[in-house]
Write a structure and sequence with these properties.
single chain, alpha+beta, Pdz3 Domain, 2-enoyl-CoA Hydratase, Chain A, domain 1, six-stranded mixed beta sheet, five-stranded antiparallel beta sheet, 30% helix
Amino acid sequence: MSALASATLLMLALAAPPALAQSSPVDELPLEDIQTFAEVFERIKRAYVEEVDDSTLLRNAMRGMLSELDPHSAYLDRSEFQSLRESTEGEFGGIGIEVGLEEGRLTIITPIDDTPASRAGLQARDVILEIDGNPTERLSLQESVTLMRGEPGSQIRLNILRSGQEAPLDVTLTREIIRTESVRSEMLEPGYGYLRVSQFQSRSGEQVNNAIRRMERDGPLQGLVLDLRNNPGGVLQAAVAVADAFLQSGLVVYTEGRLPDTQMRFSASRETAAPDVPLVVLINGGSASAAEIVAGALQDQRRGVIMGTESFGKGSVQQVMPLGNGEGLKLTTALYYTPNGRSIQAMGIEPDVRVVRGRLEVTESSRQLREADLEGHLRSRSEPRAMTQEMSERLREDYQLGEALNLLKALNVLERR
């Protein structure tokens, strides 16, 4: 292929669609740069140590074009496009982690609940140095994700760098079919519910409403913990639907971009599953994107108390655009803003009450024997059913969750006065 032919090909490939074409000088194609690009293309074809086909070179060029924009824009080949669809629909093969690039390093945003990654103890902010011996510094984000996905039953070895530890860790995991139920609920105590949203999928809003109705079968809720910790985000409309479960009116989120169809506003509807239930929302450094939309909306509308640590700070919106060849384009097209006009991009949500992760230790000397501790004690008619040992241990292990429950109880005390 001659340099002239390459330049012609590149001009055709890069030409803007008619709907977007403008006559202003800003939108004119930089012919000199395109000619330089074609010259590089030609020299690689002619002189590189190994033969490289045109298709590979062009796709690599497109990947590079997008990867330099921001960490979330990417060119998706057929398998990558299919993987993205699977993850938003809630089923895929892999180990169950959400990853991103921080300062050029492949970093775990969050492990997904009840997956090989979470069971192996992988944590948000862990840096993945190698995947099956392949250094991740040489890989794009999409290439890393593709390497980590695979057939159920196959093994994968990750080399992990964790903050506070001197030496990297080698972790071997077995891939599974990851079927992610994005919403889980249970009762912490009579009247106090727990709602965990692990990521935002297309049916998350419906699942939240169903979970609230289930928890209310035994009586009205006196308080609810909405756990968005280590929630990496997901579908924007699902975040709006989850926030709508607690809001009767008002703005939830709005987006602003260059094109008219990226400037959108989403408001709450009157149909609300839990409009008046006292609410504590847990967030941490793994709460990103759609999780921050929900936390920001509830914070701005003073609907709940945000507790935990500062969130991740991903305030951009990506559109997934299918291409005619079965591949796709994931492109950042807008920024989202909370109802009060706050941009979360690179800032995050600051909690109203800062509570760091920890474990509550109760020493023997600080615990005095009480009548209720005696085996066979007479039960008062008004004595509530005892909390299960499993739940009690969980609240000791999860200090943030225990503090959220205590805050809900305090809010109820103040409400009665």
